[in-house]
């Protein structure tokens, strides 16, 4: 299958880069820091879980900006994007393979981080209010909420370079944190940077048994906007890449 061959080729490209190491070390470090802090933190259970997941939601845009920049620079250094652009009849598939690789690594890193945290939280700190199924669903929520961010960053990193991607990630992290305050209560369903933090917060609230009836309309709007946004953004990104001929500065 063509896509599998392209994915294998993309994996081989990452061998001599810090791409894989980043996806292994960052989850380990983040979960370790939170678990170490929670060994003596006076916060209650719900506060600890909420802070961890909202921290992930705020930090992910920066990590996404970094890894998309790595992927883009690897292509630039390997031959000014000619490997991606040379296969005219499979041009869109090469783009899809790179995006899919980023998403697969993201999924793995998110599950790794949450697995480390949940095991430590349950087995070491004996916080057993939630079972592992809660954490698995939380990982899926975080991943799904950031798919559109990956599409955006792959476009920015290919079109404008690593500095733009990393800089955008920092700005996005601030926006995520800002939308978690009262300023985002009415607008978060329509902004990609409000989805992850609010989706995960609502999942926590529902899981502790609180009534979210008054928030169901916002949740429904957010889910529709998220799914629709991913589809539209992906289609637009494919149309852009089909006509893209590399960065002007690379010629």
UniProtKB/TrEMBL annotation:
Ranges annotated as spanning the membrane: 20-40, 52-71, 99-122, 134-156, 163-183, 222-242
Pfam families per the UniProt record, alphabetical: ABC2_membrane_4
Swiss-Prot/TrEMBL keywords: Membrane, Transmembrane, Transmembrane helix
NCBIfam families on file: lanti_perm_MutG
Protein name: Lantibiotic immunity ABC transporter MutG family permease subunit
